Amino acid sequence: MGTDDKPITPSRRRFLGGALGVAGAGAVGAAGGFGASKATGDDAQPVSAARTQVSLYGSHQAGIATPAQDRLAFAAFDVTTTDPMALQTMLGLWAAAAHQMTTGQPVGGTGSANSNPAAPPLDTGEAFDLDPANLTITVGFGPKLFDDRFGLADLRPAALKDLPAFAGDTLDPNRSGGDIGVQACSNDPQVAFHAIRNFARMARGTAVMRWTQLGFGRTSTTSRSESTPRNLMGFKDGTNNILAEDTGDMDKFVWVGNDTDQPWMTGGSYLVTRRIRMLIESWDTDFLSDQEAVIGRAKVTGAPLGGKHEFDPVDLSAKAGDGTALIPAHAHIRLAAPASNGGMKLLRRGYSYTDGIDADTGLLDAGLFFICYQADPEQQFVPIQRRLGQNDALNEYIRHTSSAVFAVPPGLSGPGDWFGKKLFST
Amino acid sequence: MGTDDKPITPSRRRFLGGALGVAGAGAVGAAGGFGASKATGDDAQPVSAARTQVSLYGSHQAGIATPAQDRLAFAAFDVTTTDPMALQTMLGLWAAAAHQMTTGQPVGGTGSANSNPAAPPLDTGEAFDLDPANLTITVGFGPKLFDDRFGLADLRPAALKDLPAFAGDTLDPNRSGGDIGVQACSNDPQVAFHAIRNFARMARGTAVMRWTQLGFGRTSTTSRSESTPRNLMGFKDGTNNILAEDTGDMDKFVWVGNDTDQPWMTGGSYLVTRRIRMLIESWDTDFLSDQEAVIGRAKVTGAPLGGKHEFDPVDLSAKAGDGTALIPAHAHIRLAAPASNGGMKLLRRGYSYTDGIDADTGLLDAGLFFICYQADPEQQFVPIQRRLGQNDALNEYIRHTSSAVFAVPPGLSGPGDWFGKKLFST
Description:
- The structure is a homodimer.
- Chain A has about 425 residues and is α+β, with helices and mostly antiparallel strands.
- The first copy, chain A, is about 20% helix and about 15% strand.
- Chain A has helices at about 10-20, 25-30, 85-100, 190-200, 245-255, 280-285, 290-295, 330-335, 380-390, 420-425; strands spanning about 70-80, 135-140, 180-185, 205-215, 215-220, 270-280, 345-350, 350-355, 365-375, 400-410.
- In chain A, strands 5, 6, 7, 8, 9 and 10 form a 6-stranded antiparallel beta sheet that branches. Chain A has a 4-stranded antiparallel beta sheet with strand order 2-3-1-4, covered by helices on one side.
- In chain A, helix 3 packs antiparallel against helix 4 (about 190-200).
- The longest helix of chain A is centred in the N-terminal third of the chain and has 19 residues, at about 85-100.
- Chain A starts with 9 loop residues before the first helix and ends with a helix.
- Chains A and B meet through helix 4, strand 4, helix 6, helix 7 and strand 8 of A and helix 4, strand 4, helix 6, helix 7 and strand 8 of B.
């Protein structure tokens, strides 16, 4: 699919707008011109002006360095077509729709294609009146997409491979993996859900949703503008996260640099998701002192053991009067600390979830949908999780139930660019 | 359990505060004195001042006439004890905790019982720093609670009985019914989840959670202060709902009056919940004109067919030039309209939900967790749903997957009162 620099005329806009809501609109992809910069529906109803927007366009995809929004809807898709053009068409339609949704516009308009009432609505409608509330939509590609279906095998980055098995893994394969991962974050959960649902709708005939996860509360701080939230264990989470303002750390630990084996990934990042169920009934009966020893921090203040305040440095060598370490050997923050992992860090961006009651046990199925971004999972998530899976005192209270990894390409340059365009045009 | 008018001294407060986090604290119930008006933990850490609160106390329970908050956590419990005093103790602990949580205080304090670190924390902690965000906690009793276990058989109101089977029902018994229902609503989902979770924790040994449901977006308007939201079909929902400001309608249709057969219910209401899954993939392929005919309203504006604006009166007799009804015979709003139901109305208070992917079909499990309040389900929900179940054009696109009914007693008078105190002291 080549670039298309022809001006977007009103009739072409209408055509693209109409096609956005229609499954299998393969011809549109071939015509290019994704990313009409304005909603193009046929219905003249006013839509509320969007007050809080994050641009889809930039050198990196939004939703990584963006200050973490409050709510998450995540979905993984499996591609069902074997036609590379159909796949590219879908990714192009997604990009155009992502621009519309992130600017508070309906996908393709509020009406139906060509204003014909005997046609399905272009947009599913549940976000018509809603502010995008900082909606970001971030798209990545799983290792399996680089098999022999689409001629991408030679373009798979060495850093993108299935994660190894870790000690204690209890993964549900039906909730793991996927050809494409989509992270939608917004301060309004209906806006985030709407994005995922409309992506699924546009995928019809090309890809199917493999699994999805709603997250109701952020558990990370990714900017100095945010306070540290608490996870469902009641502890502050993300205190020592990489901050977007730390551009040195972002460049070193999060963004893929020019030294990548696959130039289409320069400016991108690698996304790892882990659905970490907490055995909260068990956790809730644990003594406060044990909980704090397991985590390595005071529960109320978030201060590292031995410190007084949340942001006090984590002193792994601090000792009590009797010579024992104040932060125990198997405490979570000791094992996860950069000092225990060759200086390696991750950008965390997870969310608390609850999915009702576990039918097998009658216990709450709730915990943390862990999300992290990094320049190379083999150097970052994998060795850290290997250490945690073997020794973390927290393991008594958690179960990893889903796992996925995606290569997140760099940001979209503007209208006409789309998710993975560089990959497919390499 | 009698009343207890003795002043709450600091040492008694500490005892109660400590007991709040401890399972099976039966002795506390016998001592009465629930509802210490202040958090009583031993930890002096400051907690953020609560900015937006709805009082737990009043003639009616909060969470019914309260303007609908944005997020929901609902849970149904089955009582496992056969000791009526243990049940009352739990309900009293819940009331004390509900007062603390709705005023932005942790349950029993931020520390552990008696400041002993070798004891579990009193509160699970995930809401320590959060504003209650208009948290309301509403408690009701299911028909089964009035069996022979607790000596309540003669106190069951005639209006409280299992709902009959309706045409098209596809109910999951594991997600239906329950001895006690708890609705927690807040503008912060973590606050609502925290309430349900801590209730479950305090119930340990007395009751177990039977099912739970998270709702991510309100689908009703219950006050003139709110705009009409959209449900996941993309239509405005709740346009003609009873408004809390319409005290005439509230008294007539929502609150149980003095004429009840069970005086402990005067000032209460009956709560019906129905988990209504939407077959959204199917809905999304339906023509816009068909969707509007099924609902009976225009999708974008919410105007009734034949009208121009959302709040135009619903004219069921309006006809097109060819003599056909503008609002079709089987349109949802025609069948649900008061004029089609002997003037009967319901107070709706439902929420959109999504619970991931249906493993059997690979389709999204999403829809509406319908909640309504009324003075008598036999006269209100039952005949309306009977009509809808048989004839509603919407039935092609929805499945009722869970059902429950609860008698919601009147409001708590203040500290010392608790959920069902009048019932148990009758």
